[in-house]
Specification:
Blueprint (H helix, E strand, L loop, with lengths): L1 E3 L5 E3 L3 H13 L4 H21 L7 H39 L1
Antiparallel strand pairs: 1-2
Helix pairs in contact: 1-2, 1-3, 2-3
């Protein structure tokens, strides 16, 4: 859907709700941290840029910003989790090799 502007242009609706839900999921569900976090981060950044350019309805700016921040935090925590698990697996594997 699009909104009509006074100057005659068309602005598309923001995706702030979707972006916020993706950001929340990236924190709440560890298995979805990376895909949801990255999606929220990328979609939110694009929407914020389009809002500044006037191509997207700016009414959801705060929710979009919150979704982007949650997406960044979720992506960071998800990456840290994956790196920690890989480190644990490598250490466990190397210890099992030395025991045998």
């Amino acid at each position: 859907m699009a909104l009509e502007l006074a100057r005659g242009g068309v602005v598309r609706r923001d995706r702030s709700g979707v972006i916020l839900v993706l950001g929340i999921l990236s924190l709440a569900v560890p298995a979805l941290a990376l895909p949801c976090g990255i999606s929220a981060w990328v979609m939110g950044s694009r929407d914020m840029k389009a809002m500044r350019a006037g191509a997207v309805d700016p009414s959801g700016r705060q929710l979009t910003r919150a979704g982007v921040i949650l997406g960044i935090v979720g992506t960071s925590l998800g990456t840290l989790f994956v790196l920690t698990m890989l480190t644990v697996l490598v250490v466990a594997w190397s210890m099992s090799e030395t025991v045998n």
